[in-house]
Amino acid sequence: MNINFAKAVASGNDFVIVSNMDGKLKEKIIDFSDFARSICKRKYSVGADGVLVLEKSKTANFKMRIFNPDGSEVDMCGNGIRCSAFYAHTKRVSSSPMTIETKAGKLNVEADRNMIKIKMTPPKDIKLNQNIGTGKEIVSIHTINTGVPHVVHFVDNIARYPVKEMGSKIRYHKLFEPDGTNADFVEVIDRSTLIVRTYERGVEDETLACGTGVVASSIISHLIKETKEPITVITKSKESLRVNFKRERNNFSDVYLEGKADIVFEGGINYV
């Protein structure tokens, strides 16, 4: 059966978007996990870091579901939200501002052409200054949930750091079983600038950007390195994202992620 889709990208994080707003997509796709495993394969199919399924919502303008290339469904994806918002705004599914329902909660989003600003859910489960063993090495980490779980580790030279190797070790560490975690590696450039590289679970590799990872890294660097918001984060793709927040003691509110999103192309795929 032919499935219409859009390929969208935000800071190098790329997604296949399919609309199920009329509820009829289930007639063609019985299992979205299988669909994600098939269509996300690079060189063999469209290729993507994930699939975004847009559906009707009773409490928001629409609902976004996120499926990783391994078929797992996750609660939240910051760059996925930006792509979905741009798609919805372009296709007139919703005007700006809009609310988007996710498994991590409802998010308020503003779209100004291709610049998308998300009000993120408040971070939780913040634990600082932990030491874990990764083979022969002891690594100092900080954990936080910005819609999905993240580990943040600071490095001196991020360009030469073995992100995939260390990211995999942290992602599968027994401390984070059974679901695992995402791993962010951060170099602080100055009081308001970071470089962040992220190993994403479900993708099982480093991606060119990770929205929730950028927010996680910004919050943790504020706590550990005393960086000041607004924080500019340079991603692996070299695109910059902006993070704003308010802090009262150890509570964070009004957390915003802002950056560009685009639709690269649209098409149809014969999915059996």
Write a structural description.
The protein has four helices and 18 strands. The protein is of the alpha+beta class. The chain folds into two domains: 130 residues, Roll (Diaminopimelate Epimerase, Chain A, domain 1); 134 residues, Diaminopimelate Epimerase, Chain A, domain 1 (Roll), CATH 3.10.310. The chain has an 18-stranded mixed beta sheet that branches. The protein is globular. The chain starts with a strand and ends with a strand.
Features:
single chain; 272 residues; alpha+beta; Diaminopimelate Epimerase, Chain A, domain 1; 2 domains; 18-stranded mixed sheet; 18 strands; 17% helix; globular
Beta-strand content: over 45%
H/E topology pattern: EEHEEEHEEEEEEHEEEHEEEE
Described by the principal axes of the CA atoms, the overall outline is globular
End-to-end CA span: 6 Å
Question: Could you tell me the radius of gyration in angstroms?
Answer: 18 Å
CATH architecture of the largest domain: Roll
Number of domains: 2
**Strand count:** 18
- List segments where confidence is low: pLDDT < 50 over at least 5 consecutive residues: none
CATH topology of the largest domain: Diaminopimelate Epimerase, Chain A, domain 1
